[in-house]
Design goal:
The complex is a heterotrimer of chains A (about 800), B (about 170) and C (about 290).
Chain A: H1 15-19, E1 35-41, E2 47-53, H2 55-59, E3 63-67, E4 101-102, E5 108-114, H3 117-124, E6 128-133, H4 140-143, E7 159-167, H5 170-176, E8 179-187, E9 199-205, E10 210-215, H6 220-231, E11 238-241, H7 258-270, E12 274-277, H8 280-286, E13 293-301, E14 307-319, H9 327-334, E15 345-353, H10 367-385, H11 389-396, E16 405-411, E17 417-420, H12 425-436, H13 438-450, E18 454-466, E19 472-478, E20 485-489, H14 498-510, E21 517-521, H15 538-565, E22 572-575, E23 578-581, E24 587-589, H16 590-596, H17 606-610, E25 634-639, E26 645-658, E27 663-674, H18 681-701, E28 732-736, H19 753-756, H20 758-770, E29 780-781, H21 785-791
Parallel strand pairs in A: 1-12, 8-29, 10-11, 14-15, 20-21, 27-28
Antiparallel strand pairs in A: 1-5, 2-4, 2-6, 3-5, 7-15, 8-13, 9-10, 9-12, 13-14, 16-17, 18-26, 19-20, 19-25, 22-23, 23-24, 26-27
Helix pairs in contact in A: 9-10, 10-11, 10-20, 14-15, 15-16, 18-20
Chain B: E1 16-23, E2 26-33, H1 38-45, E3 64-67, E4 70-73, H2 79-82, E5 86-88, H3 102-109, H4 119-131, H5 140-147, H6 158-170
Parallel strand pairs in B: 1-5
Antiparallel strand pairs in B: 1-2, 3-4, 3-5
Helix pairs in contact in B: 3-6
Chain C: E1 7-9, H1 14-23, E2 27-30, H2 36-41, E3 49-52, E4 63-65, E5 68-72, H3 77-82, H4 84-89, H5 92-97, H6 103-108, H7 111-117, H8 123-130, E6 134-139, E7 142-147, H9 148-151, E8 152-154, E9 157-158, E10 165-172, E11 179-185, E12 195-203, E13 209-217, E14 224-225, H10 227-233, H11 240-251, H12 264-285
Parallel strand pairs in C: 1-3, 2-3
Antiparallel strand pairs in C: 4-5, 5-10, 6-7, 6-10, 8-9, 11-12, 12-13, 13-14
Helix pairs in contact in C: 10-11, 11-12
C-alpha cells in the first residue's frame, strides 16, 4: 500500500470555500419564499395539558398554520425507539407534539408556521396552554428513591432500564482480595453546544412528488429511511441532504427530533418550503444532552496493587425519554475497566427517567464517565496502598504482548464481547512518564509549596472502542472529461475533513492529486446505503470501504491502460493523474482511460471520437462490453467491521491552584494517544485538541443546571460556560501508531479521544495540588472554585 | 383531486423603515422591518450568508462583522441602527480572483478551522484587531485574550492562536 | 430568538429624545445596544419604543476638565479605554475596562449605557462609585446631577426618572499622589464579576493612608463602597496586617445568595482576597511606588 498521501499533513481542500464564507449551512440555502417554524414549548417539567387555544395565534397576520397534536396526522405517535434492547421495558419515546402530558421543560407542544421567524415567535406567544403541573424529582438520586414522583406512570421507581454484566468470576476474586478501595463519583450533565444549532428545511415538489429535506444531521440516510417509512413515501422520492454542518458531537444524530418530522409534514401540506432554524435557547432545552452518571465503584486488589476484580454500580440519567436506548450506559459499562487487565468484572446500571431534556450520546458517549470512575479509583487505590500512581498503573495495564485482551460477558455497542485488539499501553505510560518526569516534578512541587504555591500532577488513561458497524460503503467514479475522481459515501461530516482524509486514501491508489478527488457525501441521492457519523467510525468504516472501492477502480484502470498502451499490467504504474509504462514516457491520462472504457456510438468530442465503438479500448472479438463488465471506471464496495477496534491513550497535566481564589490554571497538558495508522496527522491532532477542549469544559466549567422544579437555569451562553481561548491551555500531543490488525488500513477512530480522560486528569491534579491543605478528594465534575473553597474547609 | 394552491402571505405586517448601509464598499438601500437584526439583514436580505448566527445574545461571536471599521456583533445591532454606516463582512476579505486574505491563508495553513461555522466571526474579529493599528501582543496569552469573545467548539483554539501569529508575520505592519 | 416589535425613533436633539421618553413610559434609549438587545432577543425585555440617540449632536467627545473626566452618552467603552488623556487623568478606568466583556462589545457598547443598565456585577458602575463620580440627567423638569451612590439603587434599577435621559457621566480624576487599582475574578474571561474590587488610596506626609475609597461589585444588589474596610485602612501605613483586616471586614458586605457560579461563602473568600491584593496594589502605586 502506497503511503505518499496517506499519513501526510495535507491541507484541507474544503477550507478556501469555508474561509470565504461560502459554506452552505441549512439556513444559508436559498429557498423560494420559505415559511418559518417556531414552537410553543412546555414551561413545566411534568404536567398534564388541560387545554390548548391557538385561535389568536392562527388569526395573527403573517401566520400560515398552527399545529397541535390533533393536526399532524400520521406523525401523531411516539417516535421510533432507535436501538431496542432487552434491558428496557416499554421504552418511552417522545411525540412530535405533546398529547395530554409534557415531560420536560422545553418539550414541543405547538408548532407555528409563519412568514418569518419574528412573526412566528410573536404568534407562539399568543398560544394559550393550560397545564396542571405535577410533582417532580429532578436529581437522579432523588428520582430512584421510594415514593419519588414518577416521570412516567408506567415506570415504577423511574427505572427505564436495568442491566447487569459479569466477566470472569468476580465473586471468587472478591473473596481472594487483600484490599478493597471504594469510592463514589459523579459526572454532571453537559451538552454538545455545537456552534451551529440544529436546522431543518423541507421542500416538496408536487410535480415530481419528491420531498427534499436539508437537515443539519449526522445521519441523512437514516433520516431518509425514517421519513419514507413514516410518511408512506417511496425512498426514491425522499432526498435528505446534510449540507455543511456546524459541529455535531453526537447531538445531531437523534432521529427523530420533532422538527425533523414536523417540518417535512408542513412543507408537504402547505406546498411551500418550510424551515426551522433552532435558536440557542432551544438548543439548550430541546436538543439532547448527556453525562449525568453516579458510580459506586470498588477495586479489589492484592497488596501489590494488582486489581483482580472490579465492581461498579451506576445510575445513568436518561432524561424524560429513552429514544437511543441504553447506548451511553452500555458504552460506559463496557469501558469501566479501562486499559487494565482486571480479569473479573461485575457491572450493573440503572437508567433513570428524570423530567429533563432527553439524553443521547454526546462526544465520548459514556466513556468520560467510566474513565472518571476507574481512574479516580486507581488513584485512590494507589494512595491507600502507599504506591505511586504511575506504578499502580504499570502493574495493571494490559501488557504490550498480551493483545488481544477479551472481556467475556461484557457486550460492547457492537453487540459483541469487548476485545481490546491491539495497543502499546505500557509504552504509552513510559512516554508520559518521560514527558512529565514525576520525580523531578515532586521536587518542583515541594519547592513551590515553600513559596505558597500549590502545583499538582494529574494522570489518566483511557480506552475507546471505535469503528462500529454494521457497515459503510464507498462509490468511486473517474470522470471521463476531467479525469477527476468522484467519491461518495453514506455518512457525512461536521468538520472532520472527510474531503481531505478520504481524498488521501483514493489519491494514493489512483495516482491522482488529493485536490482532484471530489467527495460528495451526506446526500441520499449521491449514495444511500449507510448508517451515520458517530462513535468515531468514519475513518475506520467509510475509510476502509473507500479504500476497498479504490482498489477495484485501480485494477480497472490498470487493466484498461494495459490494453490501451499495449503493455503488461505489471508494467503499469499510476501517478500524476495518468497511467504510465514504468520507466518510459508513454502514458494515458485517466480522463482518456475513462472515456476509452466507455464504448460510445456518438463522438461528441475529441475524446469520445477516440473511444467510439469503432475503436474499442479492449482489442478482442465480441461485444464491446463483456458479460459482467460495465462501462467506465467505477465501482462500489462496502466494509463491514467484524467488531470494534480499540484506540487508547494517556493524558497528564500539571495544574496550579490558587488557594485564595480557588482558581485552577493548567500549566502543562500532555496527551499521548494511539489511533492506529493516521491518515492525516494534522487532522487527527485537530480532533484530539478539540476533544480536549470539550473535556476541559466538562471538567471545570460546564454543568446544565435545573432547579428543584425542573426549570433549566442556564439555557444560554451567558450562564452555561463553554470555555473561550483564555480558558483552554495549549496542549502537547504525541502520537503512537499501533496499526489496527482488524482492517486493511490499520486505522482506529479518534473523533472522541480527546475528551475522555480530561475530567479524571484535572481532578487528579487538583487533588495532588491541595493534598497538603487537607482538601480531600475530588470525585465530582465539573470542579468549580466554590467546590474547592468548600474542600479547603471554607465556611 | 388537486386543489387550488393555497394563497399564503409572503411578508410580515411589521412597519418597515428605509435603510441605507454601505456593505463591503457598496451602498445598499432597502426597506425592512424596524426590528430586523443586522445579522438577518446581511444573511437574508442581501444573501451574504458568510456571517453566521450562533446565539443572538452576544456571547459566541459567530456573527462578528466590522461596523465603521471595528469589530461588532451583528446580532446585537438593528439594521435601522446601522443605516448610514459602513459594514464589512467575511465576503470582503478575499480578492475578486479568489485569492485569500493573509488571515484566511494562515487559517488554512494552520488547520485553524474544522466545521467552519465560527470561522467568519473569528476572522473578522482578528482582522478588526489587526486594522486597529495598535501594537499587538503576539504571545500565547496576548493572542488568546484577543480571541476571547469568540467561541469555537471544534478546534480547541490552539491552531487558531498559531494562525494569528502566522498572519501577523505575513501582513504589512500597522 | 427574535425581538418583539417596537416603534423606532432617531431624534436629532436631547429635547426631542426627552419628549419621546416622557410621552411613552415603555420607551427606552438605544445607544450601543449591547445590554438591551440581548435582553430583547431573549424577549426578557420588550420595550414599546426604542429611542436611538446616535444622531444627537453633543453626545460625543470625551473631555477632561475641572478635575473630572466628562463622558457623553454616545461614548463607546473602547474609546474611553484607549484614550491616553483619560488614562493619564485616572488609570483605574483602563484597568477596569479590560474586564468589561470583550473588545467587540466594548467597540459598540457605551459607558453611559452600562451605567443605566446598572447590572450589579458590572464594572463601570462600580468604577463610578469608586471614583465618587456622578451622572447628569436631562428631563422634562430640566437638568440635574446625581451622585453615583444615589444613582445605583438596586440590580438594574437606577434613580433615573421616566422621561429622563442620562446625557453624560463624570469620573473624577485621580487625586494627586494617590494610587488606584482594580481587579476582578470571573470564571471565564469577560464574564460578569463573581466579585470585583477597586481601590483608591492617598497618603499624607507622615505616610498614613487618607482619602481611601474601596468599592466592590458582584457581591450584592448594587455596586458599593466597602466602608468598614476603608475605615481599617485610613490612617494606617497599609501594611500586611492592615490589608488582612480590611479583607476580613469586607466579607460582611457580601449579600449575594448562592448561585450557580459561586456560593456566598466562596464569594466572601474572593472579596477578602481581592481587597487585600487590590488595596495593597493601589497603595504601592501611590506617589511614585511607595
Amino acid at each position: 500500500m502506497s503511503t505518499r498521501a496517506f499519513g501526510s499533513r495535507i491541507k484541507r481542500t474544503v477550507d478556501p470555500a469555508l474561509l470565504r464564507g461560502e459554506g452552505a449551512f441549512v439556513d444559508d440555502i436559498p429557498l423560494a419564499n420559505p415559511l418559518h417554524a417556531a414552537f410553543v414549548r412546555s414551561p413545566y417539567a411534568r404536567a398534564r395539558i388541560t387545554a390548548i387555544d391557538v385561535a389568536a395565534a392562527r388569526a395573527h397576520p403573517g401566520v400560515v398554520a398552527v399545529y397541535t397534536a390533533d393536526d399532524i396526522g400520521v406523525i401523531d405517535r411516539e417516535m421510533p425507539l432507535l436501538i431496542p434492547h432487552p434491558s428496557m421495558t416499554d421504552a418511552r419515546t417522545q411525540r412530535p407534539l405533546a398529547r395530554d402530558d409534557v415531560y420536560y421543560v422545553g418539550q414541543t407542544v405547538v408548532m407555528v408556521v409563519a412568514v418569518d421567524r419574528y412573526t412566528a415567535e410573536d404568534a407562539a406567544a399568543l398560544v394559550e396552554v393550560d397545564y396542571d403541573p405535577r410533582e417532580v424529582a429532578v436529581d437522579i438520586e432523588d428520582a430512584v428513591k421510594p415514593g419519588a414522583p414518577l416521570v412516567h406512570d408506567s415506570h415504577a421507581g423511574n427505572v427505564a432500564a436495568y442491566y447487569e454484566q459479569v466477566s470472569g468470576d468476580p465473586d471468587a476474586a472478591v473473596r481472594a482480595a487483600e484490599h478493597v478501595t471504594r469510592i463514589k463519583v459523579k459526572v454532571e450533565r453537559s451538552t454538545a453546544a455545537p456552534m451551529e444549532c440544529r436546522a431543518v428545511a423541507a421542500q416538496f415538489d408536487a410535480v415530481s412528488g419528491e420531498l427534499t429535506v436539508w437537515d443539519g444531521t449526522q445521519a441523512p440516510i437514516s433520516v431518509r429511511g425514517g421519513l419514507a417509512s413514516i410518511f408512506g413515501l417511496d425512498e426514491d422520492k425522499v432526498r435528505v441532504i446534510a449540507p455543511n454542518v456546524g459541529g455535531g458531537f453526537g447531538q445531531k444524530v437523534l432521529l427523530f427530533y420533532p422538527d425533523e418530522l414536523l417540518v417535512p409534514m408542513a412543507a408537504m401540506e402547505l406546498g411551500r418550503p418550510v424551515k426551522y432554524i433552532e435558536d440557542r435557547r432551544e438548543n439548550f432545552i430541546g436538543s439532547t444532552q448527556e453525562r449525568t452518571q453516579v458510580h459506586a465503584i470498588e477495586l479489589y486488589a492484592r497488596k501489590n496493587g494488582e486489581v483482580i476484580a472490579l465492581r461498579d454500580s451506576f445510575l445513568h440519567d436518561t432524561g424524560a425519554f429513552i429514544p437511543y436506548g441504553i447506548a451511553v450506559a452500555q458504552v460506559a459499562s463496557t469501558s469501566i475497566a479501562g486499559p487494565y487487565r482486571i480479569p473479573n468484572i461485575w457491572v450493573e446500571f440503572t437508567a433513570v427517567y428524570t423530567p429533563t431534556v432527553p439524553v443521547t450520546p454526546y462526544r465520548g458517549c459514556g466513556r468520560p464517565q467510566a474513565c472518571f470512575a476507574i481512574e479516580r479509583a486507581m488513584d485512590q487505590l494507589a494512595e491507600e496502598l502507599g504506591l505511586d500512581r504511575f506504578e499502580v498503573r504499570r502493574r495493571n495495564l494490559i501488557g504490550d504482548d498480551q493483545f488481544p485482551w477479551t472481556r467475556e460477558g461484557l457486550l460492547f455497542a457492537d453487540g459483541l464481547r469487548v476485545s481490546l485488539d491491539s495497543g502499546q499501553y505500557q509504552t504509552a505510560l513510559e512516554m508520559i512518564t518521560s514527558e512529565l518526569r514525576p520525580a523531578d516534578f515532586a521536587a518542583e512541587q515541594a519547592r513551590a509549596r515553600t513559596e505558597g504555591k500549590y502545583l499538582g500532577l494529574g494522570l489518566a488513561f483511557y480506552v475507546e472502542g471505535t469503528g462500529l458497524g454494521p457497515y459503510e460503503g464507498g462509490h468511486i467514479k473517474v470522470h471521463p472529461i476531467t479525469g477527476k475522481v468522484y467519491v461518495n459515501t453514506g455518512l457525512t461530516g461536521q468538520g472532520q475533513g472527510h474531503e481531505t482524509v478520504f481524498g488521501q486514501i483514493v489519491a494514493d491508489q489512483l495516482g491522482v492529486a488529493v485536490e482532484d478527488v471530489i467527495l460528495v457525501e451526506g446526500d441520499t441521492r449521491a449514495f444511500d446505503w449507510g448508517v451515520a457519523t458517530f462513535a468515531s467510525r468514519a475513518a475506520v468504516v467509510s475509510g476502509n470501504a473507500i479504500y476497498k472501492t479504490a482498489l477495484i477502480v485501480r485494477r480497472q484502470i490498470i487493466r484498461a491502460a494495459a490494453n490501451m498502451l499495449e503493455a503488461s499490467e505489471d508494467d503499469i504504474e499510476l501517478r500524476d493523474g495518468a497511467a504510465w509504462i514504468r520507466g518510459t514516457d508513454r502514458n494515458a491520462p485517466l480522463a482518456a482511460i475513462a472515456t476509452a472504457s466507455n464504448p460510445l456510438r456518438y463522438a461528441f468530442n475529441d475524446a469520445a471520437k477516440a473511444a467510439t465503438q469503432f475503436m474499442p479500448a479492449s482489442k478482442h472479438d465480441g461485444p464491446p462490453l463483456d458479460e459482467g463488465q460495465h462501462p467506465g471506471l467505477e465501482a462500489t464496495d462496502y466494509y463491514s467491521p467484524a467488531c470494534a477496534t480499540w484506540a487508547y491513550g494517556v493524558h497528564g497535566a500539571i495544574v496550579e491552584v490558587d488557594p485564595d481564589l480557588c482558581d485552577v490554571k493548567i500549566r502543562r497538558y500532555v496527551c499521548i494517544h494511539d489511533c492506529g495508522n493516521m491518515i492525516n496527522p494534522t487532522i487527527v491532532e485537530g480532533q484530539v485538541m478539540g476533544g480536549i477542549a470539550q473535556g476541559l469544559g466538562g471538567a471545570m466549567y460546564e454543568r446544565i443546571e435545573y432547579d428543584p422544579e425542573g426549570n433549566p437555569l442556564n439555557a444560554n451562553f451567558v450562564d452555561f460556560l463553554v470555555p473561550y481561548a483564555t480558558e483552554v491551555p495549549s496542549v502537547e500531543v504525541r502520537h503512537l501508531e499501533t496499526p489496527s490488525p482488524l482492517n486493511p488500513l490499520g486505522v482506529k477512530g479518534v473523533g472522541e479521544a480527546g475528551c475522555i480522560a480530561v475530567g479524571a486528569v484535572i481532578a487528579s491534579g487538583i487533588e495532588d495540588a491541595l493534598a497538603p491543605l487537607g482538601a480531600g478528594k475530588f470525585h465530582n465534575t465539573p470542579i468549580t472554585p466554590s467546590m474547592i473553597h468548600a474542600a479547603l474547609g471554607g465556611d | 383531486m388537486r386543489r387550488p394552491r393555497i394563497a399564503t402571505p409572503t411578508v410580515s405586517s411589521d412597519p418597515r423603515a428605509p435603510v441605507s448601509i454601505t456593505v463591503n464598499g457598496e451602498r445598499v438601500e432597502r426597506e425592512v422591518s424596524v426590528r430586523m437584526l443586522l445579522s438577518d439583514f446581511l444573511r437574508h436580505e442581501l444573501g451574504l450568508t458568510g456571517t453566521h448566527v450562533g446565539c443572538e445574545h452576544g456571547v459566541c461571536g459567530a456573527c462578528t462583522v466590522l461596523i465603521d471599521g471595528v469589530a461588532g456583533r451583528s446580532c446585537l445591532t438593528f439594521a435601522v441602527q446601522a443605516s448610514g454606516h459602513e459594514v464589512r463582512t467575511i465576503e470582503s476579505l478575499a480578492s475578486e480572483d479568489g485569492a485569500l486574505h493573509p488571515v484566511q491563508e494562515a487559517f488554512q495553513e494552520c488547520h485553524a478551522l474544522q466545521c467552519g461555522y465560527c470561522t467568519p466571526g473569528m476572522i473578522m474579529n482578528i482582522v478588526g484587531m489587526f486594522e486597529e493599528g495598535r501594537p499587538l501582543d503576539l504571545s500565547d496569552e496576548g493572542i488568546r485574550l484577543a480571541l476571547s469573545g469568540n467561541l469555537c467548539r471544534c478546534t480547541g483554539y490552539q491552531n487558531i492562536v498559531a494562525a494569528v501569529r502566522k498572519a501577523a508575520e505575513t501582513m504589512p505592519a500597522g | 430568538m427574535k425581538p418583539a416589535l417596537f416603534e423606532y425613533s432617531a431624534p436629532k436633539t436631547v429635547a426631542e429624545a426627552v419628549a419621546l421618553l416622557s410621552h411613552d413610559p415603555g420607551a427606552v434609549v438605544l445607544a450601543g445596544g449591547q445590554s438591551l438587545v440581548p435582553a430583547m432577543n431573549l424577549r426578557l425585555a420588550s420595550p414599546s419604543h426604542l429611542v436611538d440617540i446616535q444622531h444627537i449632536d453633543g453626545l460625543r467627545g470625551i473631555r477632561v476638565e475641572d478635575g473630572r473626566i466628562v463622558v457623553p452618552a454616545m461614548t463607546r467603552h473602547r474609546e474611553l479605554e484607549l484614550s491616553d488623556a483619560v488614562h493619564a487623568a485616572n488609570p483605574v478606568i483602563r484597568e477596569a475596562m479590560a474586564h468589561v466583556a470583550h473588545v467587540p462589545i466594548r467597540n459598540r457598547g457605551t459607558v453611559v449605557g452600562s451605567l443605566c443598565h446598572a447590572d450589579a456585577a458590572a464594572e463601570m458602575p462600580m468604577v463610578l462609585v469608586l471614583t465618587r463620580g456622578s451622572v447628569v440627567a436631562e428631563g422634562p423638569g430640566g437638568r440635574r446631577t446625581i451622585a453615583a451612590e444615589d444613582f445605583f439603587q438596586f440590580h438594574m434599577t437606577t434613580a433615573r426618572e421616566p422621561g429622563e435621559m442620562i446625557v453624560e457621566a463624570h469620573f473624577p480624576v485621580l487625586p494627586e499622589g494617590a494610587g488606584a487599582a482594580f481587579d476582578e475574578f470571573t470564571r471565564r474571561h469577560g464574564d460578569y464579576a463573581i466579585a470585583a474590587v477597586g481601590a483608591i488610596v492617598g497618603f499624607d506626609a507622615a505616610g498614613r493612608a487618607r482619602d481611601v475609597s474601596i468599592a466592590a461589585c458582584g457581591i450584592g444588589s448594587k455596586p458599593m463602597r466597602l466602608r468598614e474596610a476603608e475605615a481599617l485602612i485610613a490612617g494606617t501605613p497599609v501594611g500586611e496586617a492592615d490589608l488582612a483586616a480590611a479583607g476580613e471586614a469586607a466579607r460582611a458586605a457580601v449579600s449575594a445568595p448562592d448561585d450557580m457560579h459561586a456560593t456566598t461563602a466562596y464569594r466572601r473568600r474572593v472579596v477578602a482576597t481581592l481587597v487585600r491584593r487590590v488595596v495593597g496594589r493601589a497603595a504601592q502605586r501611590a506617589g511614585k511606588g511607595r
